[in-house]
């Protein structure tokens, strides 16, 4: 089975070709334009998708050495994401499936972040059902009970900002460029994580909240720079380490609670924030101390990519779960409703 997959939910245009559960190519065009604005501008994102989509698909096919006539189906991200961005990928996928006369397969982006763990990789163990997935990205923060490929239950999620947003907005307050998450990680590795204690939010159950953290960092920076205008520059490593430490603790506290509740000790994480070194270290420690088994996909499959759309496409293809060509993109698309 050869699947061409297309992802255009946010600011990256991506196309991948899979042969069954194996990735033959995974091409990603990132949009540099948003750095200037300190965040993704939806209008500019859709335009850039328009420019990138055809070359990116061509590249993916060429790299995989597959002719479009060999394709078995076209999989695409239906949502959630920015509507204008989703429309580009959706329309392209619909047209191509019609032109080639092959089935169309819609994919939920968040489901794909979770199922990216099933992309075949030499010598890498896969999580077994049931397991817990924690998706930590720029737009989402969820703990999901995964009972089967397409049986997922959201146990908890953020009530306000996503964890990636918490990183990026904190970074902006420190004058760092967008996206600031990786910079906080880089500077934080050289700092003391206990230098500045920030409060952790009190949220019931397995839900998260990150907007309070951002506010307390804002007040903290304002207070300290009033006393010393160079405070941030002089203490950047320690501030970053402290922010990263607090965010990691918030995530780990909820994960521990979820493990206690479900008695499931297999934890798979995904989403761009899973690149974070502090979070990775905390998970490695939890393996040793609490006997968890943790799974982290390759970085290429953590951030937005079409390969993860393709793996979902493959499993849906096996079930002949095809999509009608009258399908429309969904900016909001709840997990477990596809
Ligand atoms: P969604 O999947 O919810 O639609 P998204 O696709 O925009 O969101 P991703 O591409 O998965 O999000 O992740 C991007 C986020 O990951 C950004 O907020 C970025 O700052 C963050 N990020 C990437 N690397 C790191 C890191 N090392 N430490 C902290 N955050 C990081
Ligand atoms: Fe994503």
TrEMBL record:
Positions bound to substrate: 135-139, 168, 181, 185, 276
GO cellular component, one term: cytoplasm
E.C. number: 2.3.1.234
Catalytic activity, reaction form: L-threonylcarbamoyladenylate + adenosine(37) in tRNA = N(6)-L-threonylcarbamoyladenosine(37) in tRNA + AMP + H(+)
Cofactor note: Binds 1 Fe(2+) ion per subunit.
Cofactor(s) the record lists: Fe(2+)
An annotated Gene Ontology molecular function: iron ion binding
UniProt entry tagged with the keyword Acyltransferase: yes
Residues binding Fe cation: 109, 113, 304
Residues in Gcp-like domain copies: 22-310
Transmembrane regions: none
Compartment list: Cytoplasm
Record keywords: Acyltransferase, Cytoplasm, Iron, Metal-binding, Transferase, tRNA processing
Function: Required for the formation of a threonylcarbamoyl group on adenosine at position 37 (t(6)A37) in tRNAs that read codons beginning with adenine. Is involved in the transfer of the threonylcarbamoyl moiety of threonylcarbamoyl-AMP (TC-AMP) to the N6 group of A37, together with TsaE and TsaB. TsaD likely plays a direct catalytic role in this reaction.
Family of the protein in this entry: Belongs to the KAE1 / TsaD family.
HAMAP family: TsaD
Protein name per Swiss-Prot or TrEMBL: tRNA N6-adenosine threonylcarbamoyltransferase
The species this protein was found in: Lentiprolixibacter aurantiacus
UniProt gene name: tsaD
């Amino acid at each position: 089975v050869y699947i061409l997959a297309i992802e255009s939910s946010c600011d990256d245009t991506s196309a991948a070709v899979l042969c069954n559960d194996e990735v033959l190519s995974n091409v990603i065009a990132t949009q540099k334009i948003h750095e200037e604005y300190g965040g993704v501008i939806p209008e500019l994102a859709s335009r850039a998708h328009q420019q990138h989509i055809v070359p990116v698909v061509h590249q993916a096919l060429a790299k995989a050495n597959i002719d479009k006539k060999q394709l078995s189906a076209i999989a695409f991200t239906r949502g959630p994401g920015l509507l204008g961005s989703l429309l580009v990928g959706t329309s392209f996928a619909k047209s191509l499936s019609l032109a080639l006369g092959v089935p169309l397969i819609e994919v939920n982006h968040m489901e794909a972040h979770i199922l990216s763990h099933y992309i075949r990789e030499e010598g890498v163990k896969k999580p077994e059902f049931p397991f817990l997935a924690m998706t930590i990205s720029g737009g989402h923060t969820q703990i999901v009970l995964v009972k089967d490929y397409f049986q997922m239950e959201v146990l908890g999620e953020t009530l306000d900002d996503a964890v990636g947003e918490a990183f990026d907005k904190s970074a902006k307050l420190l004058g760092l460029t967008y996206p600031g998450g990786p910079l906080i990680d880089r500077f934080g590795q050289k700092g003391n994580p206990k230098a500045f204690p920030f409060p952790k939010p009190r949220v019931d159950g397995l839900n998260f909240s990150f907007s309070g953290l951002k506010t307390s960092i804002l007040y903290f920076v304002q207070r300290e720079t009033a006393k010393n205008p160079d405070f941030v520059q002089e203490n950047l490593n320690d501030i970053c380490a402290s922010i990263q430490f607090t965010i990691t603790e918030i995530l780990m506290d909820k994960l521990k609670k979820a493990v206690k509740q479900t008695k499931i000790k297999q934890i798979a994480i995904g989403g761009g924030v899973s690149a974070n070194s502090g979070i990775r270290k905390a998970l490695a420690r939890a393996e040793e101390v609490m006997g968890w088994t943790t799974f982290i996909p390759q970085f290429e499959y953590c951030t937005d990519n079409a390969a993860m759309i393709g793996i979902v496409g493959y499993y849906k293809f096996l079930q002949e779960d095809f999509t009608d060509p009258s399908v429309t993109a969904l900016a909001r698309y709840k997990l477990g409703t596809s």
